[in-house]
Amino acid sequence: MRSPLPRAVLHRLETGRLVVLSVLLGALVGGLCIVLRLTLDTLISFAVRLTDYAPPGTTGEGGLMMAFGTAAHWGLITLPLAAVAYALLVRSGEGDPLTQLVRGYHQRGQWAPLPTQLRTLLGTLVGHSSGLLLGRDAPFTMTGILGARLMQRVTRLDSVEFRTLTLAGAAAGLGAVLHAPLAAAVLIAEVLYRRFEFEFEVVMPCLLAAVAGTAVYGLAFGFTPLLSFPDVQVPAAAQLPAFLLVALGASLLGWLALLSCAALPASFLSGWRRLVFAGAVGLLTAVVAQRLTPAVLGDGMGWVQLGAGGFLADGSEQAAWRWVLLALGLHVALGGGVLPSVGVGGLLGVGLANLLGVDPAVAAMVGAAAFLTVTLNVPLAATLLTVTWGGEALLPVTLAASSLAHLLSGTRGLIDSQVHARRDSAVHATTPAWLPDTVRYIPRRAAETPAVPYDGAAPAPLDADTLPPPASDRELYRRVVPASWRGARLGMVTLPPGVEVVGVVRDGSVRLPRPDLRLTATDELVFLARPDAYTALEGVLRLPGA
Predict the structure, then answer these.
(1) What residues contact residue 279 under an 8 Å CB cut-off, 6+ apart?
(2) Tens digits of per-residue pLDDT, 103-124?
(3) Tens of pLDDT along 179-232?
(4) Which of 188, 336, 501, 539 is the most buried if burial means most Cβ atoms within 10 Å?
(5) What is residue 376's predicted lDDT score, i.e. its pLDDT?
(6) Residue 507, exposed/middle/buried by CB under 10 A (0-12, 13-18, 19+)?
(7) For residues 182 and 393, what is the distance between their CA atoms, to the nearest angstrom?
(8) Which helix (H) or strand (E) holds 141?
(9) Are 87 and 119 in contact (CB under 8 A)?
């Protein structure tokens, strides 16, 4: 059972395994996104026939830069029904796909059950295709999460790998729909925290999966950026104050949208009240589309493309109505994600550009970067996203805009499952860094403290950053039976020196570790071992085929 390979070699093997799994997962998610795109196009075509209106599309998705038809009142009546259906499918407390992703990660991989994820995917498909303010990125993000769950069913993954690959799957889906794999990978690593902190350990798996997913998706639908801004030049120094005003305006609207989330307590919008409120949001969308402008239908990315190209006279009115729908829809998980914020901020930038007399393409990306930074707390990802779409010439001004927005907005955000910093996450605050999630660490008690049963309540969380190095004395460890040991007799299991089994927990009772005891999948083993020896055992168990 003891591996003759040095620990450095074992670490390389584990890292190489994660690299391969990330690429395979990205390719899998890219294929699933192709199916999702075809399904979404069919649903949108059906909705267009109902409402007699098609908003402009983006160049990256093969859309036309013009709107068709006038919204029919008999077709718009489906919007309240679609909003109620969305509220029924995405229930109170669950949140949009990005919220579920962040919550599951901070709960150490306690993801929402499969039926909940499938309901959320169906709800996002219904919401986006009907014309509600729900971004195209929402169903793609959930598809990436489901791709990781599918991989877990065909590949043996431990809890750390599954948690990392779930983030990587979401990055693959997001990178495909945004046509920006690098920005998507950074966004997933950055959106976990309200402060300017990252999960550096997941950046590379997310990037590999996003690149692979975008490559597979692009084979079917091309590699054109989602938004195209030809001939964008570096803004002159004299124009920088005007662009900073655009960033300030977008930051203010984003901050006000966050304040609106606290206007109604979550306890009030529960049960039938939530359904009625969702129906009212859908009805308001239909009334505005019929009486004022049908441009409020959809996530607005096609209108951002038109405005940035100089084909939209004034985007302020549309941005204002979209902000109202966003502020109201957030109470029922409508308007979250990436693209709705980009749409509101981009259209606001176009409107202010016409007022200030600056380049609308640059102003649209400045507004989008600032608004997205405020709502999701992702300044670096917002900058990378706008640079991917608009070119490197936008880097100085959008970086300044996102930095200013993050500085002014504080740590509020649309994603209530975000935590402030790494030390507040259960991923970094429970078990020592040298142990996997499948192991419960029981620290050695001081001589003057009373004894605590090994199967009693879990000890208080420890700060993994301030833990002392493993001691030379032996400690108790409790873990589930490894998959390769199931069905074997305990006496046939070979353990490395310094590790011994002192108990077997079965059906809530502790049994003596008799050699003829046959291990089952529901058993738990209690080890007495030196920390370094147990770490070596875990390293061997994580090897492929172990």
Answers:
(1) 80, 81, 83, 84, 87
(2) 999 888 788 899 999 999 999 9
(3) 999 999 999 999 999 888 888 888 999 999 999 999 999 999 999 999 888 778
(4) 188
(5) 93
(6) exposed
(7) 17
(8) helix 137-154
(9) no
Q: Could you give the CA distance from residue 223 to residue 356 in angstroms, rounded to a whole number?
A: 34
The answer to whether the beta carbons of residues 51 and 131 sit under 8 Å apart is: yes
pLDDT of residue 159: 79
Pick the closest to residue 278 from 140, 134, 399, 138 (CA basis). 134
Say if CB 117 and CB 100 are below 8 A apart: yes
User: CA-to-CA distance for 13 and 539, rounded, in angstroms?
Assistant: 10
Contacting residues for 468 by C-beta, under 8 A, at least 6 apart: none
Rg of the chain, C-alpha, whole Å: 26
The phi and psi torsions of 334 (rounded to 5 degrees) equal -100, 140
Which amino acid type is present at position 285?
Answer: T
HSE value, Cβ hemisphere, 13 Å, CA-based, for 162 = 21
Task: Give the rounded distance of the alpha carbon of 203 from its chain centre.
Answer: 13
Distance CA 258, CA 261 (A): 5
Task: Tell me if 125 sits within 8 A of 331, measured CB to CB.
Answer: no
CA–CA separation, 377 and 417 (whole Å): 12
Identity (one letter) of the amino acid at 392? E
Query: Quick check: 423 and 219 in contact, CB under 8 A?
Result: no
Beta bridge mates, 503: 526
Task: Let me know how long the chain is.
Answer: 546
Question: Rounded distance, CA 217 to CA 27, Å?
Answer: 8
284-328 pLDDT, tens per residue? 998 988 888 888 888 888 888 888 887 777 677 888 888 888 888
The structure tokens 């693959």 sit at 172
Give the pLDDT of residue 473: 67
Q: CA nearest 26: which of 191, 150, 123? A: 150
Q: How far is CA 276 from CA 74, 114, 267, 281, 446, in A?
A: 20, 27, 14, 9, 57
Amino acid at position 113, single letter: P
If phi > 0 it is left, if psi is from -120 to 50 it is alpha, else beta; for residue 420 that is alpha
Strands (E), 152-287: none
Question: DSSP letters of 415-456?
Answer: -TT-BSSGGGSHHHHSS-TTS-TTEEEEPPPPTTSPP--TTS
Residue 68 is classified by DSSP as E
- Residue range 41-62: mean pLDDT, rounded: 86
DSSP assignments along 341-394, one per residue: HHHHHHHHHHHHHHHHTS-HHHHHHHHHHHHHHHHH--HHHHHHHHHHHH-GGG
β-sheet bridge partners, residue 332: none
Tokens of 446: 């001081």
- For residue 81, the 8-state DSSP code is H
Residue 497: Cβ-neighbour burial (10 angstroms; 0-12, 13-18, 19+): exposed
Return d(Cα 530, Cα 474) in angstroms, integer.
4
Q: What is the mean pLDDT of residues 45-64?
A: 84
